[in-house]
User: Fold this.
Amino acid sequence: MTTASNASMPGSFLTNEEIALGERYVNHGYAIEPVEDRAALNRMRDFIAELAARHLGIALPSDRNNFLNRIGDHVSPAKLNDLRLAVINGVNAEPWFRECYFAVGRKLLSNIVGNELAMQRRVNLSVQLPDDDSSLLPVHADVWSGDSPYEVVMWLPLVDCYKTKAMYLMPPGKDREIQSQFSAFDGKSSEDLYKAIESDVKFIDISYGQVIVFNHNLMHGNRINREPETRWSMNCRFKSLFSPYADKRLGEFFEPITIRPATRVGMNHALPGGFAE
Ligand SMILES: O=C(O)CCC(=O)C(=O)O
Ligand SMILES: [Fe+2]
Assistant:
């Protein structure tokens, strides 16, 4: 008998390509693919560069990539969060932006999550200057803080990310080992936890033009960026519309983006009426 915990997909209903992608995601905890809509990616990156230049009161350089990588020439660590907030508020004020964000990974999300989706209402932005320790995310799994295990994170680099300029993720096997003995870390700091996983974490090398979907049930985070360029990346959560929610609710945190006709018909359906009770 198949139970919810060991349910496996009957392979013959999926294409070989879908099976291979699914295994990659489950076994590594992530899948990286080329973006599906390069124009949408460039439009988002250029808009972000424009918002940043506007906030800083400088002319927008023609080489957007170099401008973002070298933003440290224009902003100090103390002023970085103001810049980040100005950009992210500007981004989230534009309805087209989330449409573009979805467009870069539409097929990837459909394969890994489904084709009837809920999307986080706000996309997030990370900006990490070289050698700056002021905006780090210590090791965590999003499920520890109110996210559902059914969600995925779609993470999009706006510049090439590598080594400590990137984020790190624990491989599923090692992650399971550590999370199953979590009481050993009771009372310890997140830095203690990082030291315990440091030799196993994988820094995700990913270039501009690629997108990653990762499993946020696995431990992940970032370290001080020791590379000479600034990291710019975005992240946003997606889930199957009808899979279980945790604290991040539909309507508050998530919004349905691809409701299908049969679901709409079902939602609007009323049983035949007119009978006496
Ligand atoms: O961008 C990072 O370094 C971490 C992102 C993260 O924790 C997330 O998207 O859940
Ligand atoms: Fe996270």
About this structure: The first strand starts at residue 30 and ends at 34. Residues 126, 137, 142, 153, 155, 167, 216, 220-222, 233, 235 surround 2-oxoglutaric acid (ligand 1) (CB under 6 Å). Residues 147 and 246 are 6 Å apart (CA to CA).
